[in-house]
Amino acid sequence: MTRRVLVAAAVAVGLVSTIDLQSAADPRPGIDWPSFRGINGTGVAEGFPTPTTWDVPGGKGVRWTTAIEGLGHSSPVIWGNQVCVTTAISGKIDAGLRIGIYGDIASVQDDTEHVWKLVCVDKTSGQVLFNKEIHRGVPAIKRHTKATHANSTLATDGTHLVAMLGSEGLHTFDMQGNLIWKKDLGVLDSGFFMVPEAQWEFASSPVIHDGSLIIQADVQKDSFIAAFDVTTGAETWRTPRSDVPTWSTPTIHTVGGRTQILVNGWHHTGAYDFETGREIWKLDGGGDIPVPRPVVGHGLVFITNAHGRLAPVYAIRETATGDISLAQGQTTSDHVAWSVLRGGAYMITPVLYDGLLYVSRNNGVFKVFEATSGQELYEQRLGDGTTGFTASLVAADGKIYFTSEDGDVFVVKAGRTYELLAKNRIGEIGMATPAISEGALYFRTDKSLISIQ
User: 23 falls in which pLDDT band (50, 70, 90)?
Assistant: First the structure.
């Protein structure tokens, strides 16, 4: 039976003792989901059967539902028995979240005091473990009508919970919600580079790897990528980036014993050395508002973006070095295994699953490519053509999950031909990317955190 648990409810003193305090270690595949799109951003969780059909408004297949006050596109992160999100609570009753397919670039006019919170619940029951205030104040940067002031997903290593709030700072907590350190990174102004007054809020999520915290901050002025000690907050290195505002999250990948940080961009898609921040390779071109996270597999780095003249998908060899930018009309090179110039995604990070790359556009049209060759296997539309899609793709148990903004989840059988297994209702706005753990799906909506199993 569905259970509604109010976030504002008081937490019993003994409740914190139920938290699974698995110490910092490598995340467990299929169980932990420690950052945006899970372990290393793959969006894949195997080892457990996952649901195919459910109906949240009808109470079918619902494990629990927990109300979350405010708005946030930050996806759930999971470690042990904790599921955590951030949220931003406006001083307005109706904060104004507008879904659908449209091209308006205007910002939301809301100069009320906001309260940012860190909320963690029990994975089994949905009961609130803690609900901690992170920050309070008028947002320094406005948001888009499709965005929130809590866009960035948390990152955890089982000891630390890191919340990146853009201009409202970088905040690191322990697993009980106690603040360890915080850092003011200044005003990080994200918005359309051609119309700077159109502010859209920060959205790149933090990444933890080997004791370091990586932040990509592509903004209107003084963009950078930087590494911090996750325990102390000390800055290890900072490398300036010459790029317009972007909203992508870095991906960590090791090649020949050298750990790289992969980033999306317009003028500077590329790789940086994890230890020093030095550039390894760089690619110029593509869509001019990059959002999807880099995806890795089969010795290739998959990059997609879409806005403006091009909407490419690039399959870049993981051994690339130097400036690998393609000449006009060129689709391959020594460093680029294959690419297509008009098949990419604007907002949605693809998923690489069983040798196939699934790339979805905001209007519900998705393409499936053979990952190693770039052969397009099929194209299909989900929804009625007016349905918006923003949440990134995730996969498990032979299924690909597509979440629409209207709150419908399309379940597609993984494979070389199209087969729709189910269309399921959440009943609330669905813009955040779901998480998967031990066979259960966790959806963050505009009102709730929902577990399906």
Answer: very low
**CB-CB neighbours of 187 under 10 Å:** 14
The reported pLDDT for the residue numbered 193 is 93
How do residues 383-399 score in pLDDT, each as one tens digit? 998 999 999 999 999 99
pLDDT tens, residue by residue, 251-279: 999 999 999 999 999 999 999 999 999 99
Strands (E), 138-263: 155-156, 160-164, 170-174, 179-183, 207-209, 212-217, 224-229, 235-240, 251-255, 258-263
Structure tokens of 205? 């999520």
pLDDT score for 93: 86
Residue type, 441: L
Backbone phi and psi for residue 41, each to the nearest 5 degrees, phi listed first:
70, 20
> Sheet holding 207-209: strands in order across?
207-209, 212-217, 224-229, 235-240
Burial of 370: CB neighbours in 10 Å, binned 0-12, 13-18, 19+:
middle
pLDDT at 24: 54
Q: Which residues on adjacent β-strands are paired with residue 217? A: 224
- Rounded alpha-carbon distances, angstroms, from residue 251 to 208, 300, 409, 419: 10, 13, 26, 30
The closest of 129, 131, 107 to 117, measured between CA atoms, is: 131
Count of beta carbons in the 10 Å neighbourhood of residue 129: 22
Phi, psi of 40 (to 5 degrees): 55, 25
